[in-house]
């Protein structure tokens, strides 16, 4: 498969990607647990059908010590017993925040309250920003048809 656009070779795309990457670094440096970040990034990417990001975040999570069992169960986290209550709250918020068009009211109060039980305000800012960030990069990669499979952990720094 060949990408429709070279998001890393075009001058304008490179400029935009630097700004997007900067936002990603700020989120990554937050106090939101790294494990939670990787699980959320993977789940949002799965929902959006972003092969490139699913490849990247599966590999990055494994590099960070995430187990194959948990990675394989992210797509069915509701039925899996391997996630903490905090992770489950983050995954629920991620799903609702990604599927806004599927729910007339957007993110429901119950999902928000559950996340707020486990994460402080800075972590909630990071979590909401991460969900939004991943939806942005997923859409860029899906529209550009960025191919998956060749990502190397740590490739972007």
Give an account of the 3D structure.
By secondary structure, this protein is mainly α. The chain has a single domain, classed as Up-down Bundle (AhpD-like), CATH 1.20.1290. It is 64% helix and 0% strand. The chain contains seven helices and no strands. The model has no long low-confidence stretch (mean pLDDT 93).
Largest sheet: none
Number of domains: 1
Tally of alpha and pi helices: 7
Give unreliable regions as ranges.
Answer: none
What proportion strand? under 5%
Classify the oligomer.
single chain
Q: Which fold name corresponds to the CATH topology?
A: AhpD-like
Class from helix and strand fractions: mainly alpha
Average predicted confidence as pLDDT:
93
Reading the helices and strands in chain order gives HHHHHHH
Count of β-strands = 0
Kindly, what is the distance between the CA atoms of the first and last residues, rounded to a whole number of angstroms? 25 Å
Specify the CATH architecture: Up-down Bundle
The helix content, as a percent range, equals: 55-70%
CATH superfamily: AhpD-like
Shape: globular
Radius of gyration: 15 Å
Q: What is the CATH class?
A: Mainly Alpha
Pfam families: CMD
Protein name: Carboxymuconolactone decarboxylase family protein
InterPro entries: AhpD-like, AhpD_core, CMD-like
Organism: Streptomonospora nanhaiensis
């Amino acid at each position: 498969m060949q990408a429709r656009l070279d998001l890393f070779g075009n001058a304008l795309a490179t400029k935009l990607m630097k700004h997007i990457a900067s936002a990603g670094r700020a989120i990554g440096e937050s106090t939101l647990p790294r494990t939670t970040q990787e699980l959320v990034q993977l789940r949002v990417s799965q929902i959006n059908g972003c092969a490139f990001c699913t490849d990247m975040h599966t590999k990055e999570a494994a590099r960070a010590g995430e187990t194959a069992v948990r990675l394989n169960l992210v797509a069915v986290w509701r039925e899996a017993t391997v996630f903490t209550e905090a992770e489950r709250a983050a995954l629920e918020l991620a799903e609702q925040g990604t599927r806004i068009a599927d729910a007339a009211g957007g993110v429901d109060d119950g999902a928000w309250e559950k996340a707020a039980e486990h994460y402080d305000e800075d972590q909630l800012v990071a979590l909401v920003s991460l969900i939004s960030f991943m939806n942005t990069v997923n859409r860029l990669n899906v529209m550009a048809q960025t191919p998956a499979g060749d990502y190397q952990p740590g490739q972007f720094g």
